[in-house]
Amino acid sequence: MPKFENLEACLKDIEDRYKNNEKIRSKLAGYTDPIQITFLDTQKKVMLLVNGDQGFEIKEAGDDSAPVKIDFASEKVMIDMFNKELGAVKAYSSGKIKIN
Asked: Against a cut of 0.90, is the pTM above it?
């Protein structure tokens, strides 16, 4: 398994998983709400735009009206999760991730 060195690699992996995994696309078949991810250390915001099982796009922008918002304490939190150095439950319970 490759080691993720930066945020861009993590975001690319999310996109690749959607494009290359029929099981993921089928689970998202009815999902169309945008998801805003904010990295609090850099204030960087990205939008995950899911069009059900028809397409997926990541935009380097934010939309505070997005119905789903995920705040990461830092970009490193996401990188550590992708590298399996930090579990999602531990990140959430320790306040490193907040879901609104």
From this structure: no
Quote the CA–CA distance of 60 and 100 in Å, as a whole number.
Answer: 19
The tens digit of pLDDT for each residue in 23-43 reads 999 999 999 999 999 999 999
Cβ atoms 49, 34 nearer than 8 A: yes
d(CA 77, CA 84): 10
For residues 59 and 47, the answer to whether their CB atoms sit within 8 Å is yes
Burial of 97 (0-12, 13-18, 19+ CB in 10 A): buried
Structure tokens at 98: 């907040």
pLDDT digits (tens, 9 = 90+) for 61-77: 989 899 999 999 999 99
Question: 7-95: which CATH architecture?
Answer: 2-Layer Sandwich (3.30)
